[in-house]
Every structure is written in structure tokens, then in C-alpha cells.
Amino acid sequence: MKKIGILCATAKELSPFLTTIQNKKAKEYAMHSFYIGKIADVEVVVVYSGCGKINASITTQLLIERYEVDAIIFSGIAGGIKEEIEVFDTVVCTASTFHDTDNGIYMDFPVMDEPIFYADDYLVSLARKAAGGIKRKIYFGIATTGDRYAEPIHPDALCIDMETASAAHTCYMNQVPFVAIRSISDNNKEAGQEAINRNYEKAAYQSYQFVYTMLQELGKDTDYLSDSFR
To answer: What is the chain's alpha carbon radius of gyration, rounded to the nearest angstrom?
Structure first.
């Protein structure tokens, strides 16, 4: 049976998953706590990485190598960029890119046509099914990632965070399917750390809720979950 990695940046974002996971077992490795069990009848390994690009890359690699997950779903909060993106909306990140580094260096090895990491088509299709049953605004589009704010920001980016492109890059190099689900904690109208703190818990829970609905949809797809499906 296929195993899904659930990755969050912080303990607060991970917390709702820990109340849901069945037959939970905790394992410590490389200063991380990995929780193994089932959510919605899907085998999962859930973990938080800590904030930032490097932490996200390291933890993604650990999920792939040590726990042999077949796909990774990121769940967490983000800042909204576009005018139409409101606090507590959710963004399914169909692609991601960096904004605080020279993107050209990522095109040399492995060779890439453009410095952007695309989410897995199947996982995005699951997200579209999940979106149909959730009564709030769900957007599909690009996330931009960096440890600090820097120009230029991708003109089509819907949200900004510190981990998505790093996790996506690691999955790309390992050929592991990936998608990120980001709920908005702050935007230009409601900005700053105070807004993030005020909205953090609700936004994090909304991303959890969306991922849980995706796992319910995934649990229905016995073909995908079977070891023979590639």
C-alpha cells in the first residue's frame, strides 16, 4: 500500500493531524519526530520541519529516504499576494518558485526548461475533488518561496511562504509526487506578525481540513494505493 508523507513547517500546523492519526507510532530521527499511522485509511508519515528553505529540504529528503513515502503533501499557512486572495482562503500550489535567490542556477543541474517546480497532476486532481466539497474560496496557482522578502516576485504568484519551493525542488530531484496546500493567514489588507499570530491557528486548521479531505478521496482510489500502480 502506498504511503503518503504529510509535511508541515511548524508544530502548530502539524497538531491537527496528530489528533486524527490512528494507530499512531512516534519515531525519533535526525532531531525530528515522525508520526506513523493511518488517516482516512491511508498510510501516512507526518512531521514538521521547522521554518525555512533548508529545514524543508532536509525533512523532505528524510521522508523520502528513511520512510520511503510515495508522495508528499505540504500543509500550512502562507501570506496572500494577489488582491483577490483573502485571509482564510486556501491556495492549492500547482507550481512554486524561489524569489530570494538566482533562479538560473537551478536550471543547470538537473537540466530544467524553467526555474519552476510543478505539482503532481494526480495530487492536484485530488485537490480539485476535495475543493468541490469545501465551502470557502479555493484557488489553484503559484506559490513563491524565500527565507526573506526580495524582488522580483513571480507576477502570477498567489501566495508567499518559506518552504514550498524547497520541498518541491527536493521531490523533483527524487521524482516523488508533491503538492502544497496553503491557507492564508495574512495579506496586504491584514498584514504583519500580529495578523499572522491572530489568524495562525484557524488558517493552519483549514489546510489540515483540506488535506484530510484529499486523503478521504485518495482512500477511495484503490488502484492508486495498490503497490502495483505506478
So the answer is: 16
Per-residue model confidence (pLDDT) at position 224? 84
Q: Is 186 one of the annotated active-site residues of the chain?
A: yes
Dist. CA 117–CA 53, nearest whole Å: 14
Strand partners, 44: 4, 37
Burial class (CB in 10 A: 0-12, 13-18, 19+), 229: exposed
| H or E element that contains 5 | strand 3-8
Which pLDDT does position 126 carry in this prediction? 97
Pick the catalytic residue from 13, 120, 163, 217.
13
Does the pLDDT at position 110 exceed 80?
no
pLDDT tens string 45-90: 999 999 999 999 999 999 999 999 999 999 999 999 999 999 999 9
What integer best gives the mean pLDDT of the chain?
94
**Over residues 97-106, mean pLDDT:** 85
Q: Which of 70, 120, 186, 217 is catalytic?
A: 186
* Residues 6 or more apart in contact with residue 194 via CB below 8 angstroms: none
Tell me, yes or no, if 108 is annotated catalytic.
Answer: no
> For residues 114 and 156, is the Cβ–Cβ distance under 8 A?
no
Q: What is the rounded distance in angstroms from the CA atom of residue 143 to the CA atom of residue 55?
A: 18
Q: Which of 185, 139, 151 is CA-nearest to residue 9?
A: 185
For the chain, what percentages of helix, strand and coil (3-state, to nearest 5) are there? 35, 30, 35
Strands (E), 88-177: 90-98, 117-118, 138-145, 157-161
